[in-house]
Amino acid sequence: MAVLEKTPQRVPGRPALRTRGVSLVWRPRYVLVLTIGIAVLVLGMAANIGRGEYPISIPDVLAVLMGGGDSGQQFIILELRLPRSLTGALVGGALAVAGAITQSIARNPLASPDMIGLTTGASAAAVFVIVLGGGFGTVGGFLASAGLPMAALVGGLTTAFLIYGLAWRRGVQGFRLVLVGIGLQAMLMAIVHWLLVVAEVFEAARAYVWLNGSLNARGWEHVVPVSVALALLLPAAFLLAHVLGALQYGDDTARGLGVPVNRARSLLLLVAVGLASVATASAGPIAFVALVAPQIAQRLVGGARPPIGMSLVVGAALTVISDVVARTAFGATELPVGIVTAVLGAPYLLYLLARYGREARA
Amino acid sequence: MKARLTYGWSVLTTPAAPAPAVGGLRRRRLAGLALLAAFLVAACLASIAVGAKAIPLEGVWHALFTPTGTEDDIVVRSLRMPRTLLGALAGGALGLAGALIQGHTRNPLADPGLLGVNNGAAFFVVIGIYAFGVTNLYGYVWFAFAGALVASVAVFVLGSVGRGGPTPVTLALAGAAVSALLAALTSAVVLIDVQTLDAYRFWAVGSLAGREVEIAGQVQWFLLAGALIGLASAPALNALSLGDDVARSLGHSVRRTRTMGVVAITLLAGSATAACGPIAFVGLVVPHIVRSFTGPDYRWLLPASALAGSTLLLAADVIGRVVVRPGELQVGIVLALIGGPFFVWLVRRRKMVAI
Amino acid sequence: MTPLTKTDAAAAETTTAVRLRAEHVRLAYGERTVVDGLDLDVVAGTITAVIGPNGCGKSTLLRALGRLLKPTAGQVLLDGKRIDKMPTREVAKILGLLPQAPTAPEGLTVADLVARGRHPHQAWYRQWSADDEEAVAQALEWTGIVDLAERPVDELSGGQRQRAWISMALAQGTDLLLLDEPTTFLDLAHQVDVLELVRRLHQEADRTVVMVLHDLNLAARYADRLIAMRDGRIVAAGEPAEVVTESMLAEVFGLAARVITDPVAGTPLVVPIGGHAQSS
Fold first, then answer.
1. What dihedral angle (degrees, nearest 10) is formed by the CA atoms of B202, B208, B214, B215?
2. Domain limits of chain A?
């Protein structure tokens, strides 16, 4: 793409990548880690695709993905198995980017889109549809006909806007948002619990699986909505990433630098909400990916905030690898991927504890 | 969210005591407590009188003090009274535990579940169902209590790693980690065995229904012990709210106070959860409501939270019994459905403490 | 973009222009009015210091001048145009602001911090142009922290960190600089350091500076113009020798003091007597 500047660097530590009007800071570490990350992701997906009743080796999988391989394998991989892994990767990536945005805005490594009640809204709507299956008046009917992912999406977005609206009082302050989120979340969880009690046991089981974040039976119809959302929202996230960097400095400094703080924040949050909602709608609430992936990405690449691109790759890889584990750890039973991510995520929180706990942060 | 400590401004004050000249504050607190006690009595009466079959107040009086074995008497004595007693105990325990944990973590969002109590109880209950075939409420109680204890010990130990012992942040992080892990493990077990799920989902909702007086008896001593320890720690908690350093300079052992606090919270919340299943919101909301007239002094805040917690739980239970007569809505659900909007209203109406 | 040094012609043209003006502004936080009916002119190429007791509204005034706070009455004009009607980005190219106790994210290097000052001149596709690099390099040289460029900001001392922040404001390439308490939390040597830097900025790079200072003596020494505030109003404004008088100290600060001439700089020096004088 560009020609590295031949003139000597005037500012140490910031080599430039420039071409006709476009310029970037050249960060070799980022590029290297990103490449490795993508490689890990592809291998993970290949491993996941290879597993099943009819095992296919990784080289064969890669061959089919490149366009070759025999037709039997092609069918199994492309029609049956690829959608699942692809959904996992896309969902994980979307969640990670949403988490990266939320953490950057909140300037807090513990911030996550789930904290503001997003996923609970989606969960409540999804369980509603699973358990009541449309036999609950016009609202239920509408939701059921729209399909489970759509219902979850509607539920998630409605909750997000409701929380925002309720927290708005001459502007939105962070802590009020969180508090309202908690209030609404508890309500929605109660509804979910009630639905679980009222349901037939097999409906309850199905709901429970969804609630833990599951990639079971994900086909191309799931891949498409997430891809569309990512195609729309990811570029927006990348465009806004530059402003996200400036927002890290506190509102006053950011305004002094010419950033329209409120507008930028609202837009970024909108992107995060959109990504998280679509992801949750497709696969249920997958625990911890939004929390952990951006932080891992930040540690790998260095820098002052979770990087958007790298978070995407880490989130995707994390989800796909967790799916491999979830499918194989218990023999015949396939566990929802969310359980594995939670089991992996908890020690991560403890690590954060060991690292940050000593400082006077609250 | 960094707390910037600006050394050089040392504030030496006595712990938050009511200013002697402001007798009005003391009167207001006493009046508040008296009012809460009155509400509690009213809630108890309602809880006894109301239900699938409404029993008039003379009937209640008759059953309580001059029982003659009538049908109403039996309903009151064997169903409603134990239920009311349990509700009052559990509600008070949760209210008290909530005030304690908010004080110890200096976090107005803290809930007794933060120490992993609820998830620990749930996990052990699920193990009990899956591995030991336990299916009755009495069995659940012991498993739940054990689980609550194990979880909160784990949280406490993990949160104390490193010098200085547990701090609000480390406890919160350790609690979140342990809770998440336990929840995942619970889900795993429940999804492996459908029958476990079938039994578990009813316990998981939090309810006062069907629990006979022996259930309360199983946990009452732990609960009382927890209440005593908790109430006794009020002066130390007042000092602690000024900051660890100030508390130390006033002669309190921060580590010991925190340990006692965690013990009290575990006993209280563990007992309540063991007896009734996980009940949300009481511990979170009650201290906020009560603080508006007690102020931040824990010597008043703690007992008021206990009273308010009892009242709230009983009221929610009564509502649950009335709203879908002759069926019942579990108290855990009623609390969240009403508590949620109420909490949001509270947040909008007042300036809540910024985190 | 403003080069660090101006040509003489350009300097002469801007010497008497009023760059920033507050007209009858009322500033309030919610229900609480902090400043009312205040008028202020900031002339190009001057260093203005705002002094006053705690809570007098000096930081609030600076925030209003820096477009961080919207006046509930009156207006703030930048180069004759209403500042709240101008796009934030345009303002950021003319007016630079350094808030009190600014925060930078963890893990940031000094070079990254200073480079962030170029934000108003950048876009998502143009994040590190040759102009940007030039401005940052010059800013680093000017504040004398080139050798600190690759160090993390968190590891710097208070004085070094403050210089890094000023460097960032400098890299922004603005004519005007608003500094909110740039010397609080610094020891005396570093306070003097920072103020000497500000003086250089003014003399050699012709920047206009408005700063809030809490140290009277340093303010008297380094400012061309002093503005003394109390209870949201300007009590005295003018050259330090005119403003720093014993009666002003009594009225504004409630301080009984003697004012002598600084033996080194020739500016007024405040020597407190002790105890409170009654404010008239």
1. 60
2. 30-46+58-63+81-361
Query: Which domains does chain B possess?
Result: 101-279 (1.10.3470.10), 280-355 (no CATH)
- For residues A313 and A34, give the distance between their C-alpha atoms in angstroms, rounded to a whole number: 7
Average pLDDT over residues A206-220: 84
All residues of chain B having their beta carbon less than 8 Å from the beta carbon of residue A189 are: 280, 336
* Residue A16, min C-alpha distance to chain C (Å): 7
Q: What is the CATH number of domain A30-46+58-63+81-361?
A: 1.10.3470.10
- C50 forms beta bridges with C212, C227
Does the CB of C128 have a partner CB in chain A at under 8 Å? yes
Tell me, yes or no, if C99 comes closer than 8 A to chain A by beta carbon.
yes
**Secondary structure (DSSP) of C228-253:** EEETTEEEEEE-HHHH--HHHIIIII
ipTM score for this prediction: 0.83
- The overall average pLDDT reported for chain C is 88
- State which residue of chain A sits closest to B285, comparing Cα positions: A183
A:C CB pairs within 8 Å? 122
Nearest CB to A175: which of B187, B330, B355? B355
Quick one: residue B210, left, alpha or beta (phi over 0 = left, psi -120 to 50 = alpha)?
left
Buried b (16+ CB within 10 A) or exposed e, B304-336: bbbbbbbbbbbbbbbbbbbeeeeebbbbbbbbb
Q: Which pair of tokens denotes residue A315?
A: 């989130």
For A288-313, how does the pLDDT look when each residue is reduced to its tens digit (9 = 90+)? 899 889 988 998 898 888 999 999 99
State the residue for tokens 């009151």. Answer: B76
- Which of the 8 DSSP states describes residue A357? T
Q: Please state, rounded to an integer, the average pLDDT across all residues of chain B.
A: 82
User: Where residue B4 falls among pLDDT bands split at 50, 70, 90?
Assistant: very low
Instruction: Please count the CA atoms within 13 angstroms of the CA of A149 that sit on its side-chain side.
Output: 22
Q: pTM for the complete prediction?
A: 0.81
Closest chain A C-alpha to C263 CA, distance in angstroms? 38
Residue B8: the pLDDT is 32
Report pLDDT digits (tens) over B131-188.
988 888 888 888 999 999 999 999 988 888 766 677 777 777 788 788 888 988 998 8
A70 to chain B, closest Cα gap in Å = 36
CA C45 to the chain's CA centroid: 13
